[in-house]
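Dig into what follows:

_____
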Amino acid sequence: WYQRRVHGVKNAVKDYKQFMGTDPTLSVFFQRFAPHCKLARHRLQIGMTALEEHAVGDGGKADQATIATVTQCFITAIDAFSIGQKAVDDIHPVVKDVWENINKLELKSDHPSRTKVMKWLTKLNNMSAADELTAEDSRQITFDFDQAYQEFLKYLKGL
């Protein structure tokens, strides 16, 4: 649906140019008709949807699958923390899943989603399987993962 809509807008801009007999730049077009649509202007300037721009094979299908998987991993991790799982051998696998899947996306190395997950994976890697998070750490990991997930959602809105 999204890709069809973006391509439809691209065609509408082309039709506008032909109908008006003028060739306005995209900047002029957007200043007049949609001054607050910076992401849409970017999409038209590069000539592809976000899914196409960030695609990993199959015209974006792999990227969509990765986004869905990262979302699922974040929710699973946050749920595990929320129900009180504190044992390293219980939470390490879900944190590792988030880390492995978020790295499949083209996030900057200092993106808050990556840095918060990496911080906790590093900490858990340095603990033994029999260890448990303290009440303070348990509260902090829940908070950090919630923030990381919110930052991930902001990243998705920018696509």
Helices lie at 2-20, 26-33, 38-46, 50-53, 61-82, 88-102, 112-125, 135-157. The chain has eight helices and no strands. The CA atoms of residues 30 and 147 lie 34 Å apart.
